[in-house]
């Protein structure tokens, strides 16, 4: 899932509008719309505010799955040891 899709999912899950999210973050609703359609992405400096607003981690917003990451690292280490 893209960061835009994640933001849209979280926003809809909390039943808030793009305008409400934009107001809470001090940005325009057009910015939120562009994120959710993957035309642009939030600036890295906005990730902590988004994570706090939705009560999730920045890893969650970015789609980082620690369990999946560990599996990928095992594969890389195994290839390096060959």
Q: Percent of residues in helical segments? A: 55-70%
DSSP helical segment count? 6
Computed over alpha carbons, the radius of gyration is 16 Å
The end-to-end span amounts to: 33 Å
State the low-pLDDT regions, or none: none
Estimated share of beta-strand residues: under 5%
Mean pLDDT: 93
Please give the largest β-sheet: none
Report the count of strand segments: 0
Shape: elongated
Structural class of the helices, strands and pairings?
Answer: mainly alpha
List descriptors:
82 residues; mainly alpha; 6 helices; 67% helix; 0% strand; elongated
Describe this structure in words.
The chain is an all-alpha fold and 82 residues long. 67% of the residues lie in helices and 0% in strands. The protein is built from six helices and no strands. It has helices spanning 3-13, 18-25, 29-36, 47-54, 58-62, 66-80. Helix 2 packs across helix 3 (29-36). The longest helix is centred in the last third of the chain and has 15 residues, at 66-80. The termini are far apart. The mean pLDDT is 93.
């Amino acid at each position: 899932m893209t960061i835009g899709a994640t933001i849209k999912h979280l926003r809809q899950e909390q039943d808030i509008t793009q305008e409400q999210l934009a107001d809470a973050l001090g940005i325009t609703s057009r910015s939120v719309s562009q994120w959710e359609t993957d035309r642009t992405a939030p600036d890295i400096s906005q990730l902590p505010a988004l994570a706090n607003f939705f009560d999730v981690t920045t890893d969650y917003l970015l789609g980082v799955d620690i369990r999946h990451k560990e599996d990928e690292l095992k594969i890389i280490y195994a290839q390096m040891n060959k």
